[in-house]
Amino acid sequence: MSEVDLTAKIPNNVNLHDDKKLQKALEQWQPKFLDWWLEMGPTDFKLDEIYLRTAVGVGQGGWANFGYVKMPDYRWGIFLAEPEPERKIHFGDRIGEPSWDVVPGEFRNALRRLIVTQADTEPASVEQQRLLGHTSPSLYDLRNLFQVNVEEGRHLWAMVYLLHRYFGADGRDEAEELLRRRSGNADNPRILQAFNKPARDWLAFFCFTAFTDRDGKYQLAALAESGFDPLARTTQFMLTEEAHHLSVGENGVGRVVERTAQLMKEGLDPRTVGAIPLDVVQRYVYEWSTASYDLFGGEDSSNAASYFAQGLKGRYREADGLYKDPKALEQVYATEVEDHGKLKTLEIPLRRAMNALLLDAYVADCKRIVDRWNRTLKKYELAAEIKLPSVRFNRQQGIHSGHNYDPDGQPIPREEFEKRIAGEWLPTQADYEYVKSCMVKVHEVGKIANWLAPPHQGINNQPFEFEYVKFH
Ligand code: BYC
Question: Are 190 and 124 within 8 A, CB to CB?
């Protein structure tokens, strides 16, 4: 078991005090991180006490504390899951070789790039959400927003530790750059597209945490299979925190759907009472699910094939023995793409289809949450349903980009696509304005905005009527 040091300047379980040079470098990065947080993190609320969870170790069951914290005082730490003795690489060309504790020279660039791409999403998401505190629908939701934000900050720390510890001067430069790029900035944007989109209201935040954070779950799970052991161990622990973020999204959209369904059942038009109609929810779901499909990269990817061959990034739950061929050399991945207005089968050698496989696992999970929202609609005896779009719909990356499909994935003429995407399938300017008009700040204990149902459960066994935020 590694020792947990909670009193250090940077709480950690990686024996930071044994490596003075590394400790110093990270302690020099710490005030820069804090400056970034103060500039780009949640606006205001700096003096308010938030009922937050803080990671304090990696033991099963008891890994976090709950208590009131001012966000700038949050104890962002570095925690890796316990090492697995004698761990071996379990997929790709080097299967059976011992996993690496240091970066193999030949994979240095590839690994750095994977880590930087992962790292970049963490501050990006905080930047995307920085204004939302001003329109939070309840104290419970405000607290959840800030919980997600501080933990994305911790995930940045997790990646910056790897960069500093294993990538020397290059890694330190990358860590600086992570604090310089800005979500949505035309000159210095974040790396992946979905992280440059504004999360302009709480429906967008819930869709983001339902769909975009869920990409995080699948990418982290694929990296948790890595032959580079420190990456595997740090992503394993990040997944523990990620579960809450996903529930904020899944339950958040679910609560929007539930409130709208209640009102419709009462015979009310949601628009007349400041609630969100289901067609608007649907358009947001189309927007954020498809932006998140793009985060998997191309379905046919030589990058992904190399990452797999080299043992850097595996398939979802690779270590659980779900796959018959751990080298992925024997099979093909069959999919369908548009060709002259019809769907045609395309076969991709399995190794090159790693992103597509991960996307499939992700889509199955998304389908589960959408089915749950639809069960709520059914409970209220409504015929309407929320639809998860096909992976072919509205894509900017991969084999389907540049083709025109409807949300069911059927090829359609370009003119029809262009006409319907703007006014029917994706949110319109009027939708954004309407949703914005519903976003009223509710800061009284136990109260909630009219467009949202209360949660079925509070945080850490506290009731919904709990003072999750104490204003100064
Ligand atoms: N936007 O071979 P390709 C999370 C680039 S979320 C812009 O098709 P590859 C979180 C790609 O970089 C999880 N560019 O795909 C969630 C490449 O560029 P170059 C984040 C894109 O490389 C919420 C080119 O297109 N973690 O944690 O196999 C809140 C061809 O790429 C995009 C990771 O992503 C895009 N959407 O896969 C907080 C894991 N897609 O080489 C946090 C680490 C592709 O031509 N990253 N490109 O310059 C990876 O595993 C891979 O980089 C990707 C792309 C899966 C993203």
Answer: yes
Q: Among 160-164, 238-242, 463-467, where is mean pLDDT lowest?
A: 238-242
Question: Which residue in 348, 361, 335, 362 sits closest to 305, CA to CA?
Answer: 348
Provide the pLDDT confidence category of residue 4 given band limits of 50, 70 and 90.
Answer: confident
CA 144 – CA 140 distance, rounded (Å): 6
Length of the chain: 472
Interatomic CA distance for residues 393 and 405, integer angstroms: 5
Q: From residue 348, give the alpha-carbon distance in Å to each of 327, 360, 451.
A: 15, 14, 45
pTM of the model: 0.98
pLDDT digits (tens, 9 = 90+) for 337-374: 999 999 999 999 999 999 999 999 999 999 999 999 99
Please report the pLDDT score of residue 61 as a whole number: 60
Q: Is the CB of 235 under 6 A from ligand 1?
A: no
Amino acid (one-letter) located at 378: K
- CB of 376 closer than 6 angstroms to any ligand 1 atom: no
Backbone angles phi, psi at 218, to 5 degrees: -75, -35
d(CA 375, CA 173): 49
- CA 105 / ligand 1 centre spacing (Å): 22
pLDDT digits (tens, 9 = 90+) for 261-301: 999 999 999 999 999 999 999 999 999 999 999 999 999 99
Q: How far apart are CA 295 and CA 301, in angstroms?
A: 13
Q: DSSP readout, 49-80?
A: EEEEEEE----SS--EEEEEEEGGG----B--
Q: Using a 6 Å cutoff on CB, does residue 125 contact ligand 1? A: yes
| Count of CB atoms situated within 10 Å of the CB of 1 | 9
Report residue 105: phi and psi, to 5°: -50, -40
191 Cα nearest atom in ligand 1:
7
CA distance 407 to 414: 14
Our answer on whether the CB atom of 241 is closer than 6 Å to any ligand 1 atom is no
The Å distance, Cα 298 to ligand 1 centre, comes to 9
Per-residue pLDDT of 203-230, as tens digits, reads 999 999 999 999 999 999 999 999 999 9
**Dist CA 25 CA 19 (whole Å):** 10
Give buried/exposed letters for 224-250 (b at 16+ CB in 10 A, else e): bbbbbbbbbbbbbbbeebbebbbbbbb
Give the list of residues 6+ apart from residue 180 with CB closer than 8 angstroms, or none: 188
